[in-house]
Each structure stands twice: as C-alpha cells, then as structure tokens.
Specification:
Shape: globular
Order of helices and strands: EHHEHHH
CATH class: Alpha Beta
Structural class: mainly alpha
Number of strands: 2
Helix content: 25-40%
Strand order of the largest sheet: 1-2
CATH superfamily: P-loop containing nucleotide triphosphate hydrolases
Distance between the termini: 35 Å
Strand content: 5-15%
Radius of gyration: 17 Å
C-alpha cells in the first residue's frame, strides 16, 4: 500500500535447503531462531503463512520465482523477472557477480561468484540429522 505501483519478486527455495543454509550460517544477534532446527521449521512455516496472506490481500503483482529453476535456467528466469518489472533486457543481468557495490549480508562472498548448483539439494548430505526440522516443517 505504501508503494502502489511496486512489483514484488518473491523467490522460493526448497524449505530444507533454506533452513539448512540458515542453520549453518553464523548470523549475528537477532537471528536466534536459526540456532535450532525446530525453531527454523516454525519460522519457515510462519513465513509461508504470511506470504500466503500477502498473495491474497495485496493488489500489487507478485511474481513467484523458484530458486531451483533459476539455478537451472538463469537466463530464462532472469528475462522473466526483467519483463515482469517492465524493463528492457540487458545481458549484464547475467553477470551480477561483476557488480562491485557493497553487500552487507551473510552471502556477501557468494554474490561475487557466478550462480552455482552445489546448494541445490544440499540438505541430502545431512538428511539423517534433519528429523527435528522435517517434523517442525510438517514433512
């Protein structure tokens, strides 16, 4: 409502990969929910609930992007996002890692690299330890 002409791009990723990534990242204060697998599962379910709410009540268009599809088809999915926000295509979009702007997130080193696939399905390496997460996600 604050930005009535805004368009929202919402990227979804496999919940197990998302939660595992949070669990293995050394976040600073304020992310205590990420210190336990059940806590992550609960937090993820709340995120899904609130996104479902926004999808229903917001008049603003929301484009759903699947992370795994993005990794598998970077150009196609990027073109879809650029088209959604009504901008002309620029091949530089595929070289996001060459941008030298400051990045103040836990993934600051990752954004300086081309997209990679090793994080897709990473949870399988830890499957035998993820029972509490699966349970809290309702899997």
């Amino acid at each position: 409502m604050l930005f009535p002409k805004a368009k929202i791009i919402h990227c979804r990723r496999d919940p197990l990969d998302t939660c595992l990534s949070c669990f293995t990242t050394d976040f600073t204060a304020g992310y205590e929910f990420s210190f336990s697998l059940p806590g992550l599962g609960h937090f993820y379910r709340q995120y899904e609930r609130i996104m479902s709410h926004w999808n229903v009540v917001l008049p603003t268009p929301i484009l759903e992007v699947n992370y795994e599809k993005l990794v598998g088809n970077l150009e196609g999915e990027t073109r879809r996002m650029v088209e959604f926000i009504n901008l002309p295509w620029n091949p530089v979009c595929l070289q996001f890692y060459a941008n030298d702007r400051f990045v103040g997130t836990a993934s600051n080193s990752q954004v300086r690299k081309p997209l990679y696939r090793s994080s897709v399905g990473r949870w399988r390496n830890y499957e035998k330890f993820l029972g509490p997460l699966r349970e809290s996600l309702g899997h």
